[in-house]
Specification:
homotetramer, alpha/beta, four-stranded antiparallel sheet, elongated
Chain lengths: 339, 339, 339, 339
């Protein structure tokens, strides 16, 4: 940590800050310049709240030197994390993995139809929502356990892994037998109790960035899971909130190369939630792969106009196949493959 | 709902949209202009996802006419909601109510000291955190039940109501005997399962705006609680995330008069979390009252420099007293009083 | 325009709004529902300020039906605009056009070196700043006319078109003999006097989106230029300001497909200013082409570490060549070519 | 400047960065910790682009220690700047100064009517737009020189100072005889050529914050004017762009106390443009004074419903008088007066 004192700071104020730092367990190096004194504080707690120094008299600014995360940082595993599944699929390896399926599981027919379609088109993972608390209290709320069973069955039938969203600690146990990947939604990115519990299982966790979360905060949330012992964390960009209202959110494609620099964890993209509009999904899916995404999460519905939720952002199966063909052309430009 | 068709929409496309609307339960009025056809659709579900129409061919834009909330809207109770407590305190009435206390409950000494100080200065409600999941996994996590008991005891001793944050459904039962108001934090504003359960109790709920939530989304979340039967909802602005990084968040003071126009619910402000820096709390507290806030939530600590969390944004007891004096001068300018 | 009245609006208020609309030249269609009256107003001025209705008593919400722009809207020229240059290069056609060069023109050696390098790699247009007013009054401010001459000379020598930024009306005349495209920077996107003057020349104008501008505002600014008679407008995404601070701005890749839907004008991307960091430029350039960009604007410097401005975001010539190779692999996935 | 090296940085990389810094004129102090080397660089140019170091190999992060502005910083004039006018009015002193008037000057009748009304209510400065380039090319564009003459005449008649917006360098000369304060609008906050010219006159300049500008950028723009010798700069918050769309912009009230801490310049607020809606102006005006604003800029029109521009955000004269009465009650709470 670097503490820059004000030009006008008195020697007494400087000593006071030094004592404060020492009491907190830091060792302090002092640089006195012509105009300004600068204190470099090393050691001590990774999570120190720098504002506690900023409010001391005579302090101008405080800069954190080390990132506030460790396990999720690139230097923890410079070669990068590859998450390997029983069926041989790897996330973080040379193959770009596509996860697809409906927003909500609605019926056996729907799940099996879509599983067959996406599997043929080259997807590796079947996605589908079982629990759907919605922003309006008057909307469809999901099939629950029944949905999980259908996903598993369809996944097994068509050789697909299964991912579904976990929303509460109590659902972890319930979901464990059915899913290959737990998805943590944007709204739960800072539900720290949930993250801690997910740190205790071995099943990989796909953690979505909150719509107002910085990338540093995303890595801090990943740290929560990893601190519990579960290192199988996959990160996902799904759009941030900006002033532009044409799309629901602004998919921050630059998050992909940034996370690849800051962290060793696989970084994926969800262009369906990131745009919220069907015809924007293919261009943003292509852009994500071109920017280096390790995997994609795409909503596909056998009949989007009749979907019970998010139909407007779901691709028709034909659109999905066409998109997969385009992605197959782009992948080699970034040294990747696609099934 | 208003569906504006594109200039180039064919009669077939228009008929297709009309059928779609009718199938969904709307009745449709058509206006054909020189350049453009416009369909007004009335009736049907309050939570209809307008994007489902926007993706139909020939549609230009869809505008929602009615607000997607009912119970929390101004017209549901035009005279405004006043929440009355057993000891006679009212939130939403002529008196501006001040809630104060430490970020986290740390010890009996701390809670009693601060309760005495804020009570003397004119506060009506004692705040304090019992459960503190933090953004870093390496930080202090709260005293739990013990904290709730201390708050209740200190509240009773100094004639203060008690407010504390609820973070999970399982804590509702636990907290019920100890608190007069449940606080829902910004991160849980869209934890719909939690909101639904809070709709089943009678204890008032103070609902904080998420840092990326629009005011419409805040009212939709209030709707969730009210739909369950608990109409005692208090709203709270606590800062939104913007590009400005000098403060943690940007306290959106304009949310106060806007909510007062859109809703009948009391609207309050939390300048401590809204700024994150001690010396910005008094000016923003004054601004909140001047803009018409019904209540304030302010962090006060008997010794902020030693606080286990958020010390940098906590006022010293003396600062708090001085602030209360200033607020007493401002309140009459908006036709209010302060104890 | 659609005016939705409040549930509680009186007949008198409704009549008052109707009179208001008629006085403004609108013809009004009234729909009276069970709960609410809705007025559809057609005709009148394209630039009507809807807030003038929103403040009338009894009005709930006002929705604009037609886009506030005409000439820049898709329906004005559904087949899309292709801008053709004397040397046969076309922007908006099947070829993705790459414009490259240094942030500032610094010397003859620099310009000729970079022009040769980018020309070999496949760029079609040489970019370079002549006038550089900087955000700090203490920085390098550009070579002016001398820079324009160097650009033109180097452009002619290596078969490249020339683009440079115009910052004031007085520079238009000065620049006309030297540039093939005028660039309007993000800060001048709403310098309406400048836009109006650029409407009077025939030289194409590349108009950059302001960092806080919505896409609708970008199209309104294009309208200004087109209203003067210059239809050769090229739009450019260069990053918007969001809460994420890792990059200078967030390059909004989704702006590319959105503009292609809303407008007939070519849409381009500037990943150099959009990210501000060299190693993020190639992934974002690839993403832009994958999302359908008609052209790219990329900063290249023969020796970025010694650049007088923006060296940190300039590519080394070798990086640029490698990037061009990658873009050549991606272009066919979107039905495009690259020289 | 502080350069934090990566954990994995080699001694060679560290030496390379040191050489780089020395070549740039910095003197370097090195701290080698257990895990990390940190370099403190002092001296050299105030406007150094830190990204030039961030791209060097082995560098983790670069922190600027000194603010990039000097003349506008608090320490340049710790006692604060008070701007004094010939008629005795002072901005930055104990009196809160109110500037009011119409968005655009429309006619002699209008200007004289409003000048009389605001003067009676206690305003000190008459505001009014002479040049109005609008965001749509189809709108009213202002009366120009004629407007300036009317403002001056009405100002003299009712003992008011005059402020009007300057939009181009060529208008400075033209306006000089008529205005007491030049206003620079949000869109021109980074029009550095204009700022530089305004640095050469003695007339005070009111500089509005851009809708996407950080407070640091606002102070850098003030620096531009001051660097030319004109120290009479007044800053103004007028709303920033956020994701909330209910108001045009979000008036960032916290900018007031922050600027008062960072700078010695008077800080004012424009609640009319900051909200864009008439009934939000009084609460935000009150909030601004309660937060410590030195002056306010408020749009008042004798007949807002007939205003040629921005009628929806203009107060009726009666509303303005009532607001002034409220402000008179609030001012003493912050140790201020109001005429």
């Amino acid at each position: 940590m670097i503490v820059a004192m004000q030009d006008t700071a008195t020697e007494e104020q400087i000593q006071d800050v030094i004592e404060h730092l020492v009491r907190m367990g830091f060792s302090v190096h002092r640089t006195t310049g012509e105009r300004q004194t600068v204190l470099a504080a090393v050691g001590a707690r990774i999570d120190f709240d720098t504002r506690n120094l900023e409010v001391l008299s005579g302090v101008d600014k405080v800069h954190r030197i080390s990132a506030p995360y460790k396990l999720s940082g690139r230097s923890f595993r410079p070669e990068g994390t590859v998450i390997q599944f029983a069926n041989g699929v790897k996330i973080g390896g040379p193959e770009v993995v596509v996860m697809a399926g409906p927003c909500s599981v609605e019926s056996r027919e729907q799940v099996f139809a879509v599983a067959e379609q996406i599997s043929k088109a080259g997807a590796r993972v079947l996605r589908g929502g079982a629990f759907k608390p919605r922003s309006s209290p008057y909307s469809f709320q999901g099939l629950g356990l029944e949905a999980l069973k259908l996903l598993r069955e369809a996944g097994n039938r068509f050789g697909l892994l299964v991912i579904s969203e976990v929303m509460e600690i109590s659902q972890i146990e319930l979901m464990l037998p059915y899913v290959d990947i737990f998805q943590v939604g944007a709204r739960n990115m800072q539900n720290f109790n949930l993250l801690r519990e997910l740190g205790k299982v071995k099943t990989p966790v796909l953690l979505k960035r909150g719509i107002a979360a910085t990338l540093e905060e995303l890595l801090l949330s990943a740290e929560y899971i990893m601190a519990g012992g579960n290192y199988n964390v996959i990160l996902c960009e799904r759009g941030i909130r900006t002033f532009e209202t044409y799309t629901r959110n602004t998919l921050d494609i630059s998050a992909i190369p940034i996370i690849h620099k800051l962290s060793h964890l696989p970084m994926t993209s969800d262009p369906s939630h990131g745009t919220g509009i069907r015809d924007k999904v293919p261009p943003m899916a292509r852009a994500s792969v071109a920017a280096g995404a390790d995997a994609l999460l795409i909503e596909v519905h056998p009949d989007p106009d009749k979907a019970l939720s998010d139909g407007a952002q779901s691709l028709f199966p034909d659109q999905f196949s066409k998109l997969m063909d385009e992605l197959r052309m782009i992948a080699p430009a970034v040294g990747r493959t696609l099934k």
